[in-house]
Amino acid sequence: MRILSIETSCDETAIAIVEAEGDEQHAEFTVLGNALLSQIDIHKEYGGVFPALAKREHAKNLVPILEAALEEAELLHEDMQVIPEEMRSAIAKILEREPGLEEQFFAFVSECEPPAIDAIAVTAGPGLEPALWVGINFAKALGLLWDTPLVAINHMEGHILSALASERSDLNARFQGRTLEIKDAQLPVLALLISGGHTELVLMQEWLQYEIIGQTRDDAVGEAFDKVARMLNLPYPGGPEVSRLAETVRTEGRTHDITLPRPMLHDATCDFSFAGLKTAVLYMLKAKTDITAKEKEHIAHEFENAVADVLWKKTSRALTETNARTLVIGGGVSANTHIRRTFAEKMSQEYPSVALHIPAASLTTDNAIMIALAGFYRARREDVAKDILASGNLSLASK
Ligand code: KG4
Ligand code: ZN
Description:
Layout lengths: L1 E6 L4 E11 L3 E13 L1 H4 L7 H22 L12 H10 L6 H9 L9 E7 L3 H18 L3 E5 H10 L1 E3 L9 E6 L5 E6 L4 E6 L5 E6 L5 H11 L6 H14 L23 H13 L5 H30 L3 E5 L6 H14 L4 E3 L3 H4 L4 H12 L19
Parallel strand pairs: 1-4, 4-5, 8-11, 11-12
Antiparallel strand pairs: 1-2, 2-3, 3-7, 6-7, 8-9, 9-10
Helix pairs in contact: 2-4, 2-5, 3-5, 6-13, 7-8, 7-9, 8-10, 10-11
The structure holds 5'-O-[(R)-(carboxyoxy)(hydroxy)phosphoryl]adenosine and zinc ion.
């Protein structure tokens, strides 16, 4: 099955084309085309993602990204197309709220032979609604024109499944792309999802069925990283910056006496709270009139240690409570070196029989390959969408 996937939930415009086969025991995914444009540089000056700007950028970039993905997949064949008037006006209606997209859309599809695609998977949520709508409307327009079924994807499911995937190095002969596989995942799978918008522990008892067993009561962990970074005058997105400062303290083996709280470490739930930790950093900075570069590094170091301690403690509680046999970590914050290292060490010491999956660095941040993986399993189940609505707060538990 060949899937074209579209991801526009936040500040990445991404389209992938993935050839997928297999089943829930063993599936293989060959990435035929993968194009991604990050808007990070554009949002930097606002210190965060600015939704109206994200929407405009997606609308501007979707057609060129599609073209690039199709070209890489060798599915871009020029051919004049006659689009019947009725079809044209139905598509114009779908795209009427996406200024700038309609014109590019028609210019492109009028000269492009419909590619051999079996399903179009698109992120329906969670994320920024104006941004999600652009991707959804684009998917609808393509689906109508190419007579291809649509599959609505929960972005967080994409993070979970891409964390379960591993790269196959024995490149197969049929395609030149890279091949991922998801094989023999042992249920229950526990997923720790850590991103700019989410911090949750999700249990998959049955394949593609989710239960949220813990979540943040206030800020998401990525949000806390970004806010602390801003307090330390570091550029957006702050996670990697805070992490870089913290690592210098570790590599130089420096000690210091900065201490920060570990909120909810000992309470009896699998929930998290990061607002208090962030506020503790704020008060600490307010109390200092002058702050040296070294002190900043010490704060970053202690902050990152506190985050890793809390994430580990809560995940450990959840592992014990659920008897999970697999742990996956997904979302942008799973790129964090210290968190990856902490989990790798603790898992081998304390839960040696539980398989740990952390995605390859290139799959941790938002991308369209993860949407294609989810799209494959959903399409296999004929979970085809008649209509798709953007849902900013879409939860994994609501499927
Ligand atoms: O999953 P993602 O790409 O987008 C959302 O769906 O939110 O996650 C982005 C978040 C940002 O808050 C960013 O600061 C954080 O992931 N992040 C990191 C690191 N790399 C990205 N946080 C800590 N350490 C990192 N190395
Ligand atoms: Zn994400």
